[in-house]
Design goal:
Rossmann fold, alpha/beta, four-stranded antiparallel sheet, five-stranded parallel sheet, Arc Repressor Mutant, subunit A, single chain
């Protein structure tokens, strides 16, 4: 049974998450401030930490830094009420493996947890740096370059690239991307995916109108070559 540590000062949220995660056969422990969360992570040895950004005593950034120093392979999903891209990217740069912005659905969080466990499973780890022609992506440091110049990719764009690279050469449906990246089992408007892909292509493709990396498979989805 996988053990999950929730570090969150909103007790009602902890109660709801604990109920839903235990219903999926996870062993759940909780801490309501950063200092206690850090100590519990060291003593309880969870398989994954759900870490709020705004915490008393030690904030989420500080806890994440300390834990990644002590337990580099510990997966951390950061919770944040802030939608600013800079705040999210900062969390990823200091070691968080994923993030989710409040408010969120339990199904989205479960999808993120399952995806992260798959990603860190033995034999499935994604290497740190990937190069495709003049494009370089570093998933450890969350930075990317094209022709030696830094690219400003959003956290969602990194997630899309990670998904494509992990399944390079496979056709991924729009619905599959919505489930994998957005955490939805169903979604009324798959144009959400198309819009994000179009923005990503403008950043990584030489000619976005004639893509060489992210290929559209008409009527189905996309494939990364």
């Amino acid at each position: 049974m996988k053990k999950i540590l929730i570090v969150e000062d909103e007790q009602d949220m902890v109660t709801g998450l604990k109920f839903n995660l235990e219903a999926r056969d996870y062993d759940v422990i909780a801490a309501y401030d950063g200092e206690t969360g850090y100590q519990k992570a060291l003593t309880e040895k969870p398989d994954l930490v759900i870490l709020d950004l705004m915490l008393p005593k030690l904030n989420g950034y500080e806890v994440c830094k300390l834990l990644k120093k002590e337990i580099p392979d510990l997966p951390i999903i950061m919770l944040t009420a802030k939608s600013q891209e800079a705040e999210i990217v900062t969390g990823l740069e200091i070691g968080a493996d994923d993030y989710i912005t409040k408010p969120f659905s339990v199904l989205e969080l479960l999808a993120r947890i399952n995806a992260l466990f798959r990603r860190v499973a033995p034999g499935t780890g994604l290497q740190e740096i990937h190069r495709f022609g003049d494009l370089e992506i570093n998933f450890k440091k969350y930075n990317a370059q094209k022709k030696g110049k830094a690219l400003r990719l959003t956290p969602r764009e990194y997630e899309l690239l990670r998904c494509f690279i992990e399944r390079q050469g496979e056709i991924i449906t729009r619905e599959g991307l919505l489930k994998e990246i957005w955490g939805y089992d169903s979604y009324p408007d798959t144009r959400t995916v198309d819009t994000h892909i179009a923005k990503l292509r403008r950043k990584i493709e030489d000619k976005p109108e004639e893509p060489k990396l992210i290929i559209t498979v008409h009527g189905i989805g996309y494939k990364f070559l």
